[in-house]
Amino acid sequence: MTDVTTLPDRRLLLVHAHPDDEAIGTGSTMAHYAATGAHVTLVTCTLGEEGEIHVPALAQLAAAEADQLGGYRIGELAAACRALGVADHRFLGGAGRYRDSGMMGLATNEHPRAFWQADLDEAAGHLVEIMREIRPQVMITYDGNGFYGHPDHIQAHRVAMRAAELAGAEGFGPAKIYWTAMPQSVLEAGMAHFAGSSDNPFVGIEEATELPFCTPDPQIAARIDATDQHAAKEAAMRAHATQIPDNSWLYSIAGNFGSEFMGVEYYTLAVGEKGPGSGPYGWEDDLFAGLAVADGPDRSPVGAAGSR
Question: What is the pTM of this model?
């Protein structure tokens, strides 16, 4: 257990479903806050046992073969966290407590250890214990659709929000909760750039609003510009080699948009009050904006979580 009084004043908790989700969706944000001295805690809910394997030599690790991919991905996640500068990583309920459920509608959803089948309050209770220890002022997870509809992402949302509710009832819930998002304007710019390209990741999509993670710009609350951390994010993604091949469309976009794609991440604000921002929609550039620890150290015994 960590004594919260020995932790940095700013404490950020992220709840993700599988190894590699943290790097793809929030890697630059994590690296940014870790580099600026905040305590960053990553909680991953499963080992990603049902993931595809893009390294032929490791094909035998697949769920239908040796079923050892989850154990291998523990090492990949550790390497990704090192690349991001994040030292505090935990698996929800311990490594292997919950299993990757696979895509929605598959038989793997019914596995007795599938995260999709997890008892909500039991799973949330594991997260509450981490919140009790760390006392994060800010939490990041997915929206109610899990960003794109994966059952484990949806369940991660449910567990994170229930845990925040339970922790709040005890007086130490996060003051602000953000959900990962992608602005409509950014998606439209990407679609326009790749129109007619042979490696168009948006092929078959006519309008950005068809994408489940498209968010109208006015609904975005925060834009975290961590372009100076884009290399760390890419290194973290490359650490997940079984899941993200070298020819992935993610690297294709990065090659065209560079640090802007790798280094800028967006969020909606689900809980808490929006802090000062800028631009036409007042987007925050700091997830701690408006909190007591935003502009200077908070020396209260349990940090801003206890004095919000």
Answer: 0.92
- What are 232's two structure tokens? 């760390």
Establish whether 153 is an annotated binding residue: yes
Tell me: is residue 285 an annotated ligand-binding position.
no
Per-residue model confidence as pLDDT tens digits over 43-89: 999 999 999 999 999 999 999 999 999 999 999 999 999 999 999 99
Check whether 150 is labelled as a binding-site residue.
no
**Closest alpha carbon to 127 in 90, 98, 177, 96:** 90
The residue with tokens 């008892």 is 119
Angle at 83 between CA 81 and CA 87, to 5 degrees: 40
- The span from the first CA to the last CA of the chain, in angstroms, equals 23
d(CA 261, CA 120): 35
Quick check: 28 and 1 in contact, CB under 8 A?
no
Q: Tell me the residue type at 140.
A: I
Domains of the chain: 7-294+302-306 (3.40.50.10320)
3-state secondary structure of 57: helix
DSSP state of 159: H
